[in-house]
Amino acid sequence: MAATSAPPPPPTPPPAAVKKTAPAPGPQGLAGLVVIPMATAAKQFVKSLWRPSTIVYPYERLEDPEFRKRVAVQSGRPIGVGEVWDNYRGVHALNIATCISCNLCAFSCPDVCIEMVNVDLGNGKSKKCPEIDYGKCSFCGFCSDACPEGCLTMTSNYTITTNHRSEMVYSPQRMYSIYQTKLPMNPIRQERPVNEDAILLDQDLCIGCNACARDCPTKCITMIDIPKPQPKPGEKLPKRIWKEPMVNDADCVRCGTCISVCPKECLYWGAHP
């Protein structure tokens, strides 16, 4: 017995066109022109009697807890003085004692507003620390993110208005005074990225000049002795110091100072062997 095929399904009818309804007409006449606008203005005026719509800055500030209670504004988590949100980025705080003069903050600044200047430490000692020009700063936070020691952080202090352009430049001593009076808010990087490049050495180019170890801000480079080869008859050995740098990867902050001062360009960035 031959099998019979099922009849084809009926064709699907085309979807019905969606009818668009015209918006409801607004109030016309005297009510639409006078009564309703006046009622809205009166409503906002009565509401502003106990909750103002504007803030008289700088006499009233949102981070002031008493002002927040008076205007019933929901506050963020408290940080330091007053109440501001925890991701706020304001002027910087600098701990001069832990700064290692690695120059990473100035190197990572997209606005070129950071300059390394000398700071007198007393007893004839000095070191370079960052100086920030807030006339150029965009408060991106790249400098504090790049700081390996966490000594340059950002606070919630945003009051930097002044009548003189020169007062927008914050010296290391001025940022250190901010560090002493207000706790930094940015977290410090705890772990080094797994895929981060290391500093490698081309042994054939190195002359053992000690420039990398001398200028390393963290003193993580040690010059080690290497055996001096015996020259063959008629052969002259190259003029060099028979030492090579050894980098302590755990203490290295990847500032690149050793690479920049190497006269033979024998130090370079590369993947871990």
Instruction: Kindly provide the name of the CATH class of the domain at 92-181.
Output: Alpha Beta
Overall SS class: alpha+beta
Output the CATH topology of the domain at 92-181. Alpha-Beta Plaits
Give the beta-strand count. 9
Order of helices and strands: HHEHEEHEEHEHEEHE
Largest sheet: 3 strands, antiparallel
Helical content class: 10-25%
Q: Ranges with pLDDT <50 over ≥5 residues?
A: 74-82
Count of individual helical segments? 7
Mean of residue pLDDT values: 80
> What is the radius of gyration computed over CA atoms, rounded to a whole number of angstroms?
33 Å
User: Architecture of the domain at 92-181 in CATH?
Assistant: 2-Layer Sandwich
What does the model show?
The protein is 21% helix and 16% strand. A hairpin with a 2-residue loop joins strand 2 and strand 3 (125-133). It has 273 residues and is α+β, with helices and mostly antiparallel strands. The protein is flat. A 3-stranded antiparallel beta sheet has the order 2-3-5. Strands 1-4 form a two-stranded antiparallel ribbon. Strands 6-9 form a two-stranded antiparallel sheet. Mean pLDDT is 80; it is low at 74-82.
